[in-house]
Write a structure and sequence with these properties.
The structure is a single chain. By secondary structure, the protein is of the alpha/beta class. Helices cover 27% and strands 26% of the residues. It has five helices and twelve strands. Strands 6-7-8-5-9-10-4-11 form an eight-stranded mixed beta sheet, with helices on both faces. A two-stranded antiparallel ribbon has the order 1-2. Strands 3-12 form a two-stranded antiparallel ribbon. α1 packs across α2 (73-82).
Amino acid sequence: MAKKEKGKKVEIKFLEEYEELFNEDWRNIVYHGGRYSGKSRQVADALVIRGDEKKLRILCTREIQKTIKDSVHKLLKDSIERYDFRDYLVTHDSIRNTATDTEFIFIGLHHDINQIKSMEGIDICWVEEAQGVTDESIDVLTPTIRKPGSQLIFTFNRFTELDPVYVRYVMNTPPRTFRSEEHTSELQSH
């Protein structure tokens, strides 16, 4: 993907299968398999790019997240710094784009499920380490992310065939769901 900023053009390479992160037609996007395959980094890069293009409210979560260190905050910060996105304001516990007003919110599912239930206007929800997410958390999260056109992105390395996210989104793939295969692809320019 080419990103222009004040006359500056940055080329960002994505694995071909991760180009689906820019396809707003998907309700669910699921990347699973292989440690060190770049899933989390590719999602972080895509969300930073998307948030630089238009106003988005992005919830970043996982089942257990007691502190900001347990979140993807650092991964997003690293992406912003790596590609020199100057419109992002990164603080200890928040990330906001000052030009588009995109905001990243970091909350754990297990301890903050009631807070998540009351959230409005989430455009994208990224569930990292989704292999640990319970059926109960999915049952609350899915209808909460209800804004028209909203998306759920799940990244994980499954523990078992019975991991709830694996069962619901890979084994029994719902309509409007993109799911990756358990392999990596060659880098493609996006």
